[in-house]
Amino acid sequence: MSRGEEQSYAVPVPSQDPKKKDAEKKDSEQKENGDVKMNGDAEKDKKEKKNEDELSEEDLQLKNELEMLVERLSESDKSLHRPALESLRTLIRTSTSSMTSVPKPLKFLRPHFAELKTTLESWPSSADKALFAEILSVLAMTYSDNGQRETLKFRLLASQVGEAENPGLWGHEYVRHLAAELGEEYNARGEKHDENSPDTNKELLDLAVLIVPFSLSHNAEADAVDLLLELESIDRLPEFVDKDTYARACLYMVSCVNLLVPPDDVEFLRTAHTIYRKFDRYAEAMTLSLRIGDRELIRDDFEAPKNPTMKKQLALLLGRQQVPVEWLQDESDPISDYSVLDCIFNTQLSSNFIKFGKELGVYDPKSLEDIYKSHLENSRSTVSGSVDSARGNLASTFVNAFVNAGYGNDKLMVGAEEGNSWIYKNKDHGMLSASASLGMSLLWDTEMGLSHIDKYTYSSDEYIKAGALMAYGILHSGIRTEMDAALALLTEHVESNSTPLKISAIIGIGIAYAGSCREDIVPLLLQHVADETTSMEVASMAALALGFIFVGSAHGEITPTILQTMMEREPAQLNEKWARFLSLGLALLFIGRQDASDATIETLKAIEHPIAKQAQVLVDMCSYAGTGNVLKIQTMLHHCTEHLNVDDKKDDDEEDGEEEGKDKKEEEEEKVNDLYQSFAVIGVALVAMGEDVGAEMTLRHMSHMMHYGEPVIRKSVPLALALLNPSNPQMPLVDTLSKYSHDNDLDVAINSILAMGIVGAGTNNARLAQMLRQLANYYHKESNCLFMVRIAQGLIHMGKGTVGINPYHTDRQLLSKTAVCGLLSLLVSFTDARGFVLEKNHWMLYFLVSAMYPRFLITLDEELQPLPTTVRVGQAVDVVGQAGKPRTITGFQTHTSPVRLGTYERAELATDEYLSFASVLEGLVILRKNPGYVKESN
């Protein structure tokens, strides 16, 4: 191919000369920076002209009219000003637009904003100036992103120079802008606040007082509450709410409480309480009084209703929360109405529960085979089951006790023929747990129960007698009687020389009087805590029992005595495994007391022994139980991340082979030193359990701890997961625990199996039951794990699926402190499962009785007799801040009461035939006939 042809086919290539390239780039940059600047104004004019061309005739007319009015305002003839302002006001107020665009008058006035501001400054104070300032305040909304808060500035100016109109007349959007800027301004002034200057916030509050009623009457209760919160004036809300708005406002306030920092949280509760009382909503008010824990408030609410039936409903709520009757009456003026006392003392709980069981068809006792279903297990596990029959029989004792709890008719214990009782199929400590299980079977039934247990108190066997004493205590859990039988029968044995009898009597009193704050019990038990010659086991159990009885009271005599004991005891005694219950007893006194525990924590820091650190963590976590306090959760997580340095001496000692005793001692001390991390893991769950978002995030933390934590932390994670979801078997959680139950570390596996039992307690969950049957097969040679599997099986079928252990009740608004005592005591015993429950102290499983309560809804008439009615039961739905009247439950089914309720289920009456005295349909609810009800004809 010739050279000429080659050229003819060549493609033109752009210039590759770098100098030329730079010059081109420079030119384009100059063009952008210079030319665009020069042409900016021209382009703007062009754009405006184009927009003007696009405007409809109507819009163009409006634009011209507005410009004319703006001109008039700047003229010297004052007589033109007022009509011009009136016209502007009318045009702005009557303008309508879609939700997404700026109203046309504001859009057309926007370019004149600076000019109008200058005009306003030249005017003297007058009514005209006030109206002008208001119009500018509205117009400033289009400039609200400049941070000048001009909407508020001009509004305040209008109030200063004349009589300003109600902001609500300018519409919703204006009020929302104003509220937002009010909050910002208040905070800005707060930072600059000078103590000597007069209160500069009065004008802001005066303006808020105008905005709040508007928000409340336009279904924006949340905005009204938020505004008053920002202005630190939430206590003024009650004067603005009316019968149509109070319910939604209070619902929003109560749901905010978990997200607020002290003291705002209590302030919100008190304000909502005031509003409920203003509208005679006694049940809702009492619920909030119980949350605050104020004795005066509780008593005031109890005495307020004039209707005796309403008083009974409040008494039932107080009985469920186990409030001491002493809080409600004076010695000079005791409660004389026995039907009200019966409600507070839970006297009818047993008979109602048994009726409920018969109604559901679960009254007949269940045998062990009904629970184990061993025909579904692999045959090999049943063969090896006979290897350790004593351990198997002991497990069966607990399973029988939990499954038939409260029905008083099981075949192994209560229904057994004379001399053929299951007690004699156990030995030593097993006999103690077996005779104590009588209290479980006869739970809450104080009439029948005492006579059944009585015969075992005369036994010559020390363990059977001790078990019977504990059974007395278990029987009276949550029940008060006029006779005070538990205290009368157990007092003499507290001084017994036999340790099993002494401990059983002490624990029995603790469980029977949990939450009662009975001062006459203090001298009886406190002497054992104070006496240095008493064994650590007895002292710790006495402290724990006092913790149960005076839970959340921060008692002024018990607290210093326990602290004194910690200071004075020998380090060797404090190193004992029992000492953790001494710390727990102290911690229970502060449940829910928040910063009231600060002084105690400071005192603990002065103690040099490692027990001080454990007690600090326990007291701190109990003080904030269920509050969802993020800072406390972080503190607990910090404890978990500390890596304790383990001395390398151990390896040398092992090589020498001579200092094994020393090794063992070091190992014990090491256990004591890292025990606080176990408590911290449980503490994360205890603080987060009351707040759903925090609880969900805690699950992620637990997963991380399981991956990266030390062994002491890993074995505590399942316990924390159990505390987050008692009687609430959610599938992801169940699957996680199932995975942990096959862990190589048997401590983790044992605790995971217990956690599966607690999570499914009283739910009859089929999936969990199947998992446990597979675990029984998997661990058929591992006696400890198999024992725990059996216990978990018993827990899942607790009360044949009618008894739960979730400490939250009344639509998850109230936390039962006594239930937390029971759950925490059991979990703390499992921080050393092999030392307590799997050794000789299996009776600690009965701590759970404090948390047990029937999962029922029974509707009663005004005479407290059962009144079957149709109710809908479904999953609870959060309706806070939703518009209209949203459904509070979803996926509901209609039943005739009595019905069984799940942890996250809610019930509502299906018809208007009856009205409820309670705010929440849960537990025992009294109904009355609706006077305005008209039966629909078919």
Major beta-sheet overview: 4 strands, mixed
End-to-end separation: 104 Å
Q: What general form does the structure show?
A: elongated
SSE-based structural type: mainly alpha
Question: What's the number of extended β-strand segments?
Answer: 11
Number of helices in the DSSP assignment: 44
Radius of gyration from the CA trace? 36 Å
Strand order of the largest sheet: 8-5-11-10
Strand content: under 5%
State the oligomer.
single chain
**Low-pLDDT residue intervals, each spanning 5 or more residues:** 1-16, 381-387, 646-659
Helix content: 55-70%
Nearest-integer average pLDDT = 84
Task: Write up what this structure looks like.
- Acts as a regulatory subunit of the 26 proteasome which is involved in the ATP-dependent degradation of ubiquitinated proteins.
- Pfam families: PC_rep (PF01851), RPN1_C (PF18051), RPN1_RPN2_N (PF17781).
- GO terms for molecular function: enzyme regulator activity.
- Residues 66-377 form the RPN1 N-terminal domain.
- The protein is mostly helical.
- Among the domains are: 280-329, no CATH class; 856-929, no CATH class.
- It has 44 helices and eleven strands.
- The protein has a four-stranded mixed sheet with strand order 8-5-11-10, with helices on one face. Strands 7-6-9 form a three-stranded antiparallel sheet, with no helix packed on it. Strands 1-4 form a two-stranded antiparallel sheet.
- The termini are far apart.
